[in-house]
Specification:
163 residues, alpha/beta, Glutaredoxin, 15% strand, disulfide bond
Length: 163
């Protein structure tokens, strides 16, 4: 199942990105990580998910082998680690994108270290890893830190959302 989700954008985006793996995390502190609290409910904010809330609002990864997105708009899932430098740099960019696109998309964050079963289900081996979920197609993923301009291009071309 995990390889099904990381096909479309992976080859295109791999060479352009930088990211963290468990092997290169030494010395990075979790200070100043900009993440949205789990209780965030406004649609114009990035929403933090755990495994249970992910299964409820995105996809029941434990009980379904066929992709069945539960959302009502395209989404981006950011799998991050608190110690990851590129994840810390990506967090405010995702907040900006959520604000700019408003209720046309939803951006979620998943702490992959606290939600290891969920991260494993989607083949997360480096941070950040993003899952891009269009409304009527299979999702695709990218690993590493992508610039805001590249994320905007993906939102507009793959997710088919404009500002």
């Amino acid at each position: 199942m995990k390889h099904l989700f990381f096909t479309l954008l992976a080859a295109l985006l791999m060479g352009q990105s930088t990211g963290c793996t468990a092997e290169n995390r030494a010395g990075v502190k979790a200070e100043n990580l900009a993440t949205a609290p789990a209780e965030t409910v406004e649609t114009s904010q990035v929403i933090a998910l755990d495994e249970a809330s992910f299964a409820e609002v995105v996809f029941d990864f434990k009980n379904s082998s066929e992709w069945d997105y539960k959302g009502d708009r395209p989404a981006i899932i950011d799998f991050y680690a608190t110690w990851c430098g590129p994840c810390k740099r990506l967090a405010p960019v995702l907040v900006e994108l959520q604000s700019e696109y408003g209720d046309k998309i939803q951006i979620y964050k998943v702490d992959a270290e606290k939600n290891r079963e969920l991260a494993a289900a989607f083949g997360v081996t480096a941070y950040p890893t993003m899952l891009f979920i269009p409304m009527d197609e299979d999702p695709a993923g990218a690993k590493g830190l992508l610039p805001k301009e590249e994320l905007e291009r993906i939102i507009e071309t793959f997710l088919k959302v404009t500002k």
